[in-house]
From TrEMBL:
Pfam families according to UniProt: SBP_bac_8
Highest rank taxon of the organism: Bacteria
Name of the protein described by the UniProt record: Extracellular solute-binding protein
InterPro entries, A to Z: Bact_solute-bd_prot1, SBP
Originating organism: Jiangella aurantiaca
PROSITE patterns: PROKAR_LIPOPROTEIN
């Protein structure tokens, strides 16, 4: 599974000029990727209809299987209608869909993670309020659905939510004289320090992203939210607030104990191989460890709730209807979303990626018995805070904001600059991008 793609993390590094160039070239892109001309008569000569469904998750273990099961069930119930689910790289996905939405010629089924905010900003996602009210689905849905509401309009239905957990190698903790995983920031710092003094050569006490990558935003934000702060608090930038500075200091201290030059995939592999003692990462990593960790190492790898006051909720895959398709296609896409919302398919997210389904009560009891970690996931998500601050401007400008934060974190990891100085400069940069 690629880095954060379960939670939809994609970095957008393009300015207004680049966006204009991209839109000029939309006709070329849409010739290859369009879902139709937006009319009801855009089926084949035999009356068949093909719904285009691009997704960055098509070939991902877990996600891909769950989505294919939904596609197959939909097609079995809709004679003459097929779904063309095809992969788009994680790096290209957001830019491609924004371009298609903005040009008014989108694919039929819109999937999103944190791309959602960029898609919503185009104004080309169909409000689902009436359909959701008629179906009664909101009565069955978890509260994190609110993360897909813009100006009181539900613009997507969330399929599942994710969170971050503390992963640790219990043998290394025992060798360091640590009886239990840490439960507070100070205990976390002490545990990593103890590990640094006890692990053998070739083993790192902590795992984190240590290269320029979108993971850096999520990793440092988990510390900031976890320790009671946010990027924006009470309508003001709080990048230099004492709580933020303290959280970033701890993040920096631990990240300097991590192997250099690695993204999430790199340090996860080292954790799986027994070459990293502890890290904080998404709950989707549990199934990854099952797949890649050697048989003599996997039993040592355990999970615990994050050692912070707050945990972070990451809204996972969501499904939307684009405004620029025919009413016939909108109805078909809504049928697709309703099938994805059925308990059988909602429960698949717990089985496929150890996620918390959007629909309440969808996790099969036998899955909890065979995967006790799901109880930790449910406990953590149940008390989690949103990853993003309550700011429309932050979401609308997230691509540029994320880039500036990533650059600042890399400066902290690669220089001796004072943390507060780097954060002061970052706050100035963010203030120049947008009001909080």
């Amino acid at each position: 599974m690629n880095d954060r793609s379960s939670a939809g993390r994609v970095t957008v590094r393009w300015g207004h000029a680049q966006r204009a160039v991209a839109l000029v070239g939309a006709a070329v892109l849409l010739a290859a990727c369009s879902g139709g001309d937006g009319t009801a008569e855009d089926g084949g000569e035999d009356g068949s209809i093909v719904l285009d469904f691009p997704t960055w998750q098509a070939n991902e273990p877990g996600h891909g299987e769950a989505l294919r099961a939904i596609v197959e069930e939909f097609e079995s119930r809709h004679e003459g209608v097929t779904v063309n689910m095809y992969p788009v790289s994680n790096e290209d996905f957001q830019n491609q869909i924004v371009t298609q939405l903005s040009a008014g010629d989108p694919p039929d089924i819109i999937a999103s993670g944190n791309h959602f905010y960029a898609f919503a900003e185009t104004g080309q996602l169909e409000p689902l309020n009436d359909r959701l009210e008629e179906s009664g689905l909101l009565d069955e849905w978890e509260d994190f659905q609110q993360e897909r509401v813009v100006d009181d309009e539900h613009l997507a239905l969330t399929m599942h939510a994710l969170t971050r957990l503390l992963y640790y190698n219990e043998d290394y903790l025992a060798a360091a004289g640590v009886d239990a995983p840490p439960t507070s920031p100070s205990e976390l710092a002490d545990t990593v320090e103890a590990l640094a003094g006890s692990v053998e050569e070739g083993v790192s006490p902590w795992g984190a992203t240590t290269t320029t990558h979108s993971n850096l935003f999520g990793e440092v934000t988990a510390f900031i939210v976890g320790m009671g702060s946010q990027w924006i608090t009470d309508g003001e930038w709080s990048v230099t607030a004492p709580e933020t500075v303290e959280a970033v200091e701890l993040y920096r201290e631990l990240a300097r104990q991590a192997p250099p030059g690695l993204d999430g995939g790199g340090y996860r592999q080292l954790l799986a191989d027994g070459r990293i003692a502890m890290s904080q990462d998404g709950n989707w990593v549990i199934s990854t460890l099952d797949e890649v960790s050697p048989a003599d190492v996997r039993p040592q790898l355990q999970v615990a709730p994050p050692p912070f006051e707050n945990s972070v909720a990451l809204v996972g895959t969501s499904l939307s209807i684009p405004a620029g398709i025919s009413e016939e296609r909108k109805d078909l896409v809504w049928d697709f979303i309703q099938i994805a919302a059925e308990p059988e398919f909602q429960g698949m997210w717990a089985g496929a990626i150890d996620a918390a389904p959007g629909r309440t009560g969808s996790v099969p009891p036998e899955r909890v018995q065979e995967r006790p970690e799901l109880e930790v996931v449910a406990q953590t998500i149940g008390s989690a805070q949103p990853e993003f601050p309550d700011s429309a401007n932050f979401r609308a400008n997230f691509g540029e904001i994320e880039t500036r934060i990533i650059d600042a974190m890399m400066r902290l990891l690669t220089t001796d600059a004072e943390t507060v100085d780097v954060l002061t400069e970052l706050e100035s940069e963010l203030s120049s991008i947008t009001e909080p």
